[in-house]
Design goal:
Two copies of one chain form a homodimer. Chain A is α+β, with helices and mostly antiparallel strands and 328 residues long. Chain A has three domains: 83 residues, Hypothetical Oxidoreductase Yiak, Chain: A, domain 1, CATH 1.10.1530; 160 residues, Ribosomal Protein S8, Chain: A, domain 1 (2-Layer Sandwich); 43 residues, Hypothetical oxidoreductase yiak, domain 3 (Wheat Germ Agglutinin (Isolectin 2), domain 1), CATH 3.30.60. Chain A has eleven helices and eleven strands. In chain A, strands 2-3-4-10-5-6-7 form a seven-stranded mixed beta sheet, with helices on both faces. A two-stranded antiparallel sheet of chain A has the order 1-11. In chain A, α1 runs antiparallel to α2. The radius of gyration of chain A is 20 Å and the shape is globular. At the A-B interface, β2, β3, α4, β4 and β6 of A face β2, β3, α4, β4 and β6 of B.
Chain lengths: 328, 328
């Protein structure tokens, strides 16, 4: 079934109001979920709302908690997320980084003690919508083995980079594992193989069998040793700047994942002046590439196409999921 | 053969003095090359010096040119590399970013019109040695096909992240291709297969045959579509902030590669206070991982081991290369 953006946002806002959110925060939180489905990231929108509600019920998420600044030096600030809703904390942190960038050219907010930010790309789009370059990342619970090991000890630590562009921002949102556990389960449920190797099977061989990888929990980092190393660095930088927890200190049960550390950086190129349309020329050159196996897209291009379609035709939602949401 | 660090630096300094460098710049440039061999990155040290000299001779590198600031807003600055030596420009830019971070918590220098920075990791070690977190990247000539295409149109755009740690900094230096062209050629010369797929063969299949990949020029981005997307974002951010050239505007002949755009970010966590030894605890936890196929190392660990050995025993150099250098 399809639900209009306005209806989805209104229904979710209503649910959150009844869960104790202050009205403006209920609306913002609901819109961040609806934006995610509108943009086609269906794993992290309404489908994820069920787990979000459970983390309110189990006390991981404190709906009333707001982030507070605990230290600052110039354009660098450290905030405590106080265990509040992860998407509201992250949105407030990127908003603050943008304000710092507008005042100082570049700004950085490091956020400790926060919860899952849902779709990380949200905060890249937020920065680009404000006309600035955005760069943010989070640590996560341990869900990937470091290179050379079989046991999950590093997070898949999503990294987001966004460059604004009038005709459509360039926005990348990538985890350090080639596929998420959720993606493996989606492929397995559809009876499909992965398009490329996503981890190791029970014999220790690289595999495209999602069920075999899910069984070993040996997800593959992007670029093998490279993504493993980048996950370590993102964790070390986030925990150090936030003065918060590192991956090895985060509860490993998904619905208990909490006390995450995140970094939000915004850079405002406008006051520097200089040539315009650099990002446009990059996109034009990519689009002019002779295609090999498929069309060449820039990161964010498909998101924008999906957004336009979903705003026009309504957002696809599983009927069982929507029935559950409207029964809350 | 092995050459002491002091001898290597002195010989290279002498060569550069006779090529027209001012004495302090000759010494710094020579040390940056010697540091690279000392740390075991043999592809980008003395072995690379031959190409560096040729780029002086062909006019790509102007030994007298110094970077100059062309725009600034708070903690964000734009510099013009003026076609000077790439490693000197990059070192000066990271030094400036560190100073900006010490004053403002975070600092960013975007550098246009510069040349190949040789080993990117150098500037990560530089930041960490100053006690700050470093993040820098460069664009390059087009040497990797974007995901979905067969023709090289994106750069392998190395990304460096460094977190300081008293017992040994955590430093990552990764290109967006799984292997560099130089690495492919090294494997091919030794008659070895790649340890993991590094690109496509002539039939369009993923391959571990370095010669077959070198023939198609279809290098594989790390994480397939993910590394391809990250390369696009790093290029767009660097060219936009620097007001400089993007990959598609950079000459594709290696010895004509010039007018690169780079970004140097430093973040100083010290004034924020808070918990110490976060990076130590991450390293300790990694080291305690039960090994799978090999030992678990943190990024930079091997570098430090190699550095200690090479300082004690001398730096390994190919005799033919060293004979050529000393004949200059």
């Amino acid at each position: 079934m399809r639900v209009s953006y306005a209806e989805m946002a209104a229904v979710l806002t209503d649910v959150l109001n009844r869960r104790g959110f202050d009205p403006p925060r209920a609306q913002r939180c609901a819109e961040l979920f609806a934006d995610t489905d509108r943009d086609g990231v269906y794993t992290h929108g309404v489908e994820r709302f069920r787990r979000f509600i459970r983390t309110i019920e189990n006390g991981v998420v404190d709906v009333q908690a707001r982030p507070r600044r605990v230290a600052a030096h110039g354009a660098l600030e450290r905030w405590d997320g106080c265990g509040g809703p992860g998407n509201l904390n992250a949105h407030a942190s990127m908003a603050r980084a943008i304000a710092l960038a507008q005042a100082n050219g570049i700004g950085c907010v490091a956020l400790a003690n926060t919860n899952h930010w849902m779709r990380g790309g949200t905060y890249g789009w937020q920065a680009a919508d404000a006309g600035v370059i955005g760069l943010c990342w989070t640590n996560t619970l341990a869900n990937v083995p470091p290179w050379g090991a079989a046991e999950p000890r590093i997070g898949n630590n999503p990294l987001i980079v966004a460059v604004p562009r009038a005709a459509g921002h360039i926005v990348l949102d990538i985890a350090m594992s080639q596929f998420s556990v959720g993606a493996l389960q989606s492929y397995a449920a559809r009876g499909e193989r992965l398009p490329v190797a996503g981890g190791y099977d029970g014999d220790g061989h690289l595999s495209t069998d999602p069920a075999a990888i899910d069984a070993t929990r040996r997800l593959l980092p992007i670029g093998f040793w490279k993504g493993s190393g980048l996950a370590v660095l993102l964790d070390a930088a986030a925990a150090t700047l936030a003065g918060g927890r590192a991956t090895h200190e985060i509860p490993t049960e998904p619905e208990r994942e909490s006390s995450l550390s995140q970094v939000f950086i915004a850079i405002d190129p406008a006051p520097l002046g200089g040539p315009q349309h650099i990002a446009d020329a990059i996109v034009d050159h990519l689009h002019a590439t002779p295609p090999g196996d498929g069309a060449v897209r820039y990161p964010g291009e498909r998101t924008l196409e999906t957004r336009r379609r979903n705003l026009a035709e309504g957002i696809p939602v599983r009927e069982s999921t929507w029935n559950w949401v409207t029964s809350l």
